[in-house]
Amino acid sequence: VADGGLDCGSDACGEGGADRCGDRDSDPRASAPGGDCAGGAGGASETEGQRHWPAAGSVACAVISSFRGLSGLVVLRLGRNALGERGGQACGDALGGLGALRELDISNAGLGSLGARAVAAGLRAVTGLQTFSARGNGLGADGAAWLCGALSALSALSDLNLSDNELGAEGASSLSSCLRHCPSLAKLDASENMFGKAGGEILGENLHCLSELVNLDLHSNELGSAGGTAVLNALAASALKIRWLNLSSNSLGGDGGIAAGAVLARFPGLQELNLAANALGEAGAAAVVTALASHAHFRKLELGDNQLGPAGGSAIGPGLARLSALDTLFLEGNALGPNGGAAAVAGLTGLAGLTALDLRDNTLGEGGGVAIAESLGRISSLQSLDLDGNALGPVGGSAVARGVAVLPSLQWLDLRDNALGPEGSCEVAERLASLSELHLDLRWNDPERKCSAKETSSLLLSRLHTYSANSPRLRKLESVVAADMPIRGWLRKLNHGHEKELEDDEHWRDRLCFVARGKLYYESAKKKGEREPVAALASITRIRAHPDGWPPGHYIFSVEVGEGGEGGRSGSMIFSACSSHERARWIAALSGHGPVTRHGLSKAVLASAAGTSLPDVQEEVPTYARGESDLSCERGVNPLQLATLRGSSRRPS
């Protein structure tokens, strides 16, 4: 296993580069492309929006090539090593001598199409390979063609992951052809590949060949109603062993939901289904839930963000009551309202095994809190309940607390952002005092919801780590713990159209943001950790910092995106970091100056920490270096700026 441990950043690191890179063992993520050791010709660069990863150092390539002599090697994991084309060639050479290999992981290694071609040449010799992952390598259609051509010769392959590779419809064609030769495939992850309607239909042509398929993940491919229906019909033709299916974020629409309902009844072994963020609407969701009633072992359903509305909540209630083995249900972000929420929860009261229920952001209101309270108290097996963002108010919150106080197994209750007020929060806590194992979250409950204390990224990450391995929230946000990217962390984003209401906490939303492959993304609990591109770094024209600590607890910066931004976005976006130093790190990463480390800080970063305007990102920026004992700079700088950057003064109120 060399998972992120091999430094393949540049030849300087590979040959005699220890003096420059000797401290990198302290943070394995430092080997990611664009780090401070990826200098010279080997450094990362951007051309026409395509990421060029650093070339693998010669020593690293020699190490990988030497694996060829390990004829008994069964498992090889080289993920997160920025292998690039040279590293891919070394890996391909090594594979020629690894006939006993059963598992190969080269995910997030920056192979690109040329590196994939080199790996593919070696794969043909590993005839017994069973598990292969090349996720997140920017393969494109060409890389997919090379790899899928080689994988077609591996009849023992049972687990394949090609997710997040921008394959498109052309890549879907290569993958579809490969599937004809993989009769043993039991698990396939081809999510986040922008297949589109055409790609979904092409993929559907050969999915029927996978008679052993158990686990299929095609989320975030924009399949549309036609593409999604093609996939489902193909599965129904022979993949009757399917147990886990993820088609979330595919724009299936109501017609796609109805088509899914007509097919799902033919999967008797189905246990988990994720159709979140598909705009199914009332009819589509009702068709899906009704179809699942015949599945004796079905246990997990995700229908969040599907525009159900009150009518949809009422429509699915009777069907939910027939899912006898259900243990986890996500219905967040559906604007169910008091009546729809009450109808949906009433359908759950007879489910003896339900342990996790997510009803976030459903506009339940005070009446909804009162309406669902009694039903919640009858779900005796419930362990986790999320009611975040429902404006329950003191009366609704008290009713919910009274209802769930009788649940002996309840461990997690999220009542954030419900305008409970101080007295309402205290009453809720007192009513639940007898539940000694309960983790109760009552933050952001000021009825005015202005200038509420904002949790920092470190506090939130610490809280996430305390959740059990089976916690729905940790599963939804596990990328917080296991991501490999230059910068990631929690920011607050101001809702569009409220630029003049910065002090109103109601208009801010938490977003888990990160930079990867030249783009800014965010993930959120509301969307269950799904990745959403916000802006390509190349499209950012200007970044400005607002004065420190205003509104109280905020360190705000605005990002201006030009025409042609990601998803058609353009204009200004406003973010808030937890400190001036955190804001400085984000500005440095977004402006292309790289992460802020102890090796160097740019003038733009210092300016941002002091609350001054930033230059356009294209301008030349003088740099400042940190000395052994303090920060020193090429030109004079206000000491207060340096003190602010270190966080030793001007704490937020």
Q: What class would the helix/strand composition place it in?
A: alpha/beta
Let me know the number of strands. Answer: 26
Rounded to the nearest angstrom, the distance between the terminal CA atoms is 47 Å
Largest sheet: 14 strands, parallel
The average pLDDT is 77
Principal-axis shape equals globular
Instruction: Tell me the fraction of residues in β-strands, as a range.
Output: 15-25%
Radius of gyration: 26 Å
The helix content is 25-40%
How many DSSP H or I helices? Answer: 21
Record the strand order, biggest sheet: 3-4-5-6-7-8-9-10-11-12-13-14-15-16
Unreliable segments of 5+ consecutive residues: 7-56, 450-484, 594-653
Could you walk me through the main structural features you see in this protein, from its secondary elements to its overall organization?
With 653 residues, the protein is α/β, with parallel strands linked by helices. A 14-stranded parallel sheet has the order 3-4-5-6-7-8-9-10-11-12-13-14-15-16, with no helix packed on it. Strands 20-19-18-17-23-22-21 form a 7-stranded antiparallel sheet, covered by helices on one side. It has a 3-stranded antiparallel sheet with strand order 24-25-26. The longest helix is centred in the middle third of the chain and has 15 residues, at 224-238. The model is unreliable at 7-56, 450-484 and 594-653 (pLDDT under 50).
